[in-house]
Amino acid sequence: MADTTCGLHLFWDEAETGYDFGPGHPMDPTRLALTMRLVESLGLTRQPSVTVRSAPAAGDSTLRLVHTAEYVAAVKRAAADPSAVDAAHGLGTDDNWAFPGLHTASALIAGQSVAAAEAVWRGETPHAVNFAGGLHHAMPGQASGFCIYNDPALAIARLLELGAERVAYVDVDVHHGDGVQQAFWNDPRVLTVSLHESPTTLFPQTGWATETGGPDAQGTAANLALPAGTGDAGWLRAFHALVPELLAAFRPQVIVSQHGADTHVEDPLAHLAVTVDAQRTVAEAIHRLAHEHADGRWIATGGGGYAVVDVVPRTWTHLVATAAGHPVDPATETPGEWRAEVYRLTRRPAPLRMTDGATPHWSDFHDGGYDPADRLDQAVLATRRAVLPQHGLIP
Length: 395
Hints:
Layout: E1 8-11, H1 30-41, E2 50-53, H2 60-63, H3 69-80, H4 102-121, E3 127-130, H5 151-161, E4 167-171, H6 178-183, E5 190-197, E6 221-226, H7 232-250, E7 254-258, H8 276-293, E8 298-301, H9 312-324, H10 336-346, H11 365-368, H12 375-387
Parallel strand pairs: 1-2, 1-3, 3-8, 4-5, 4-7, 5-6, 7-8
Helix pairs in contact: 1-9, 1-10, 4-5, 7-8, 7-12, 8-9
Domain Histone deacetylase: 25-322
Family: Belongs to the histone deacetylase family.
Pathway: Ketone degradation; acetoin degradation
């Protein structure tokens, strides 16, 4: 059922597909184009609650809210000479190939997330989505994990610059949101929460429960490291065992979220076993939490996700639909025109429905107790013990 209380500014520019490391790189920009075509084919952009906007690229002064001037200059040099390797800044490396549009495309994606933050904070819209964003690994002075400029961190920094006093960042990508955590490690105004695959089995090998924030911001970093193989029931159990309680205690004025689709069972770069249906369920949960704790102020980004045809477009279309207040029934067939576009661009068949056929369910950690022999529950309890007392809560 449509929620007429919701409004959405969807930030999109076709030029964002210029964030293209080249053939053979996992970060295939086709996933962005196919997401937007699915959003359009399902009629979401024609809903009166939805405004599609394009913002200018982030300028140097905006990028320097998070990144060093030296690093921004290094990105521009790498774009001018893509053959050069700048290992000190993580450019031209195995993960972060250089290409001529490196700075331009990266700054454009960052600009959409910063503009999304401005629109939400100024009351122009309750919700904003930039599914091309979510590049959460970029560090102040270094590219990392396919990420050049850290657009979620830049959005948060802009919110703080505009006067926000409490911003919550919720990251459900399969990889730890290390760059955002680093940017606000010692800032008590920002709560960073990351659910991700265990650092023992996945890049970037950070995100332990013991990482809880700097000396002036203890408890403002929360990391829940999930065992490889975790599926829908465990992933949802972990999310609900931590995120709602922390947000209620922190009382954010705005929520920024990152929805990497690489938690999916078919993702080629990771080892969780989540479905599109569970990813949709978490987007709905964050939507509700924004209304419960942040007066509806919610900025959502994309992130990782390397099952370019089968997963990413459906997951992020559900995200857009949820934020628009016009959720798409999972049983909905994908439009024929979209399936034709998938084949035209990839020569692969498209998924036929907006569901993986799963019915997400989980046992509540708070109601049923925990199993001390269960690896997932061990991870949940470790994070709760590390973080909740810092907020006056009982783990």
